[in-house]
User: What shape does this take?
Amino acid sequence: MNYKNYEIPTDLVFRTRDIIDMKGLNCSALLNPKDFCDILRPPVKLKEAELKLKFSVLSKEVLAQGNISGVMEAQCSRCLEGFNKSFNEEFTQLYPNKNEIIDIMYIAKQTMALLENIRDICSSECKGLCAICGVNKNRVVCDCKAPSFSQFDCLRNRFNTKNVREE
Assistant: This one.
C-alpha cells in the first residue's frame, strides 16, 4: 500500500482510525529537540533524533513498534568537558482499537527520559580533574601530589619509639 499521501503529524499524535484503514503504517520523522528540553536535565541537550515507527493492526489492538536514534550533548562527570553521545532505543506499545488517538510523543518522551544517565563519562580513559589545582588531567600534566590519608595518622605520633618503655 502507498503511504505517500499520509502526512506524519508533527506532534506525533496519530488517529487510530487512519492506521486501521491503511491496515498499518511504516513511517519515520525527525524529532524537534525543543520538544524534549523539558525532559532532559541541563547540561544534557538533544542535538538530533530520528523516530522510525511501524504500526501493525491486530484484531483488537494496534501495535506500535518504534526506534529512536540520535545524538545528545552531555557533560562528563569526571572532567566537566562537553561531549556528544549517540543513542539508539527501541519501544513497543499496544493501543486498543477503540482509542481515538495514538500518542507517540508521550512514548518518545518517556523513552528519552530513560536514556539520561546519572553520570556521563566522555571515555573510559578519562582522568578527570586534579583534586588539588583543578586542571583537566586529560589536557595538562600537573605536578600536584595527592595527599595520603590513612586512618592511622592520628596514632602515628602517639606511639613513637621514644615513648615506649622497655620493662
